[in-house]
Design brief:
mainly alpha
Length: 371
């Protein structure tokens, strides 16, 4: 391994040794500035071993120095691609945000593991600095969205270099409820999956919808689809059930009691777009609450409807009619119909029954939710 004399001039090396031995704080800070200048001028040509030597020296020099000197060091080294890695990590985990922020926001020396650890343990100021990085992976934004305050979350959403996982988008939609600014920011992201977009708009205020339509007139059709979903969501609330819904449920009950409710009738309801009748018919034949079926109809996942259809003994064509009706109401559709068909045809009725029994057991202590 090369010695320090190989990278540091003799006069500066003497000064360094003297300062580290018994130099006052002021001399230590002055030497730190000179060592930093030396490193920045030559960092492109330094080997990993030489950078490691600088790392050791920097760590010695930053002991017991004032915050402003450490903050200046952090701001100078943060943009340097080959900055001493251990020093960068030390600065990033400093409790003082003026020291940590520059490297958290800029340094390439911090990988996802370090950023996640930092985001899980440090202050909101640290999270805000991380949210401003040029590139953020879904693993990092998951933590920022989960743990960050609204300022952190909004900063992350506004970052064009940020990626979000499926779970991250779900949490964003939940956190945006009641926050018009955050809702608008999320809706404006071009990468938001459609089913999350619909749920987001379904919860948005009228002013947010108007603002989005003004910004992007082409989105008005999608917003209208989401509003339809809001109406369907409301049908799961007993206080919001309309007279038309009551009539539909009574019709289905009459058909069921008379033994005239069968697969053909369900397919007929679905093809006619009769949402309330289809829900009630599936619920009656599968022996589950209507609210359970309604919830499945407005959720993005389709596994719950697949389970109910298999328990009820529906053919693929009837299930497809139900899925098409749901898609027409929500403005979405199955991404891979053939794969969904294969999954349904290979699903065993006994397995579906077991899943449904488990779901019924959970309903004893929980509200109806998707299978």
């Amino acid at each position: 391994m090369p010695s320090m004399s190989a990278v540091v001039p003799a006069n500066l090396l003497d000064e360094l040794q003297n300062v580290l031995s018994h130099g006052p704080v002021a001399r230590r800070v002055e030497t730190l500035h000179r060592i930093t200048d030396l490193f920045i001028r030559g960092e492109v040509d330094y080997s990993d071993e030489q950078i490691s030597l600088f790392d050791d020296v920097f760590h010695c020099l930053i002991e017991k120095i004032e915050t402003s000197a450490k903050a200046l060091l952090a701001s100078r080294l943060a943009p340097i691609p080959k900055a001493p890695p251990q020093l960068i990590q030390t600065l990033a985990f400093d409790d003082l945000i003026e020291v940590a922020a520059p490297v958290l926001a800029q340094s390439d020396r911090l990988d996802d593991i370090m950023l996640i650890e930092n985001a899980r343990s440090k202050s909101q100021g640290h999270l805000l600095a991380i949210s401003k990085r040029k590139v953020l992976s879904g693993a990092v934004t998951d933590v920022l969205v989960e743990r960050g305050n609204y300022e952190v979350v909004e900063s992350t959403v506004k970052n064009p270099g940020a990626e979000f996982s499926e779970n991250g988008f779900s949490l964003l939609v939940s956190r945006a409820e009641g926050n018009d600014n955050l809702t608008t920011c999320i809706a404006m992201r071009p990468s938001i999956p459609r089913h999350h977009y619909l749920k987001l708009i379904a919860k948005a205020s009228a002013s947010v919808r108007a603002r989005l339509e003004a910004i992007n007139p082409q989105a008005s059709g999608e917003i209208s689809s989401a509003i339809k979903e809001v109406a369907r969501r409301a049908s799961t609330d007993a206080s919001a059930i309309t007279e038309q819904t009551v009539i539909a449920h009574e019709l289905v009950k009459s058909l069921f009691d008379d033994g005239r409710l069968d697969e053909h009738q369900i397919a007929k309801f679905a093809k006619a777009g009769q949402f309330d009748e289809t829900n009630a018919a599936l619920a009656a034949m599968a022996n589950v609450p209507v609210a359970t079926v309604e919830t499945m109809m407005i959720e993005s996942r389709s596994e719950g409807l697949m389970i109910l259809a298999k328990v009820t003994g529906l053919s693929w064509s009837t299930l497809k009619a139900v899925m098409d009706m749901r898609g027409a109401l929500s403005g979405s559709s199955l991404e891979d119909v053939d794969e969904f068909k294969r999954s349904y045809e290979t699903l065993r009725a006994s397995t579906a029954q077991q899943v449904l029994r488990f779901h019924r057991m959970r309903q004893n202590t929980m509200q109806a939710e998707p299978i």
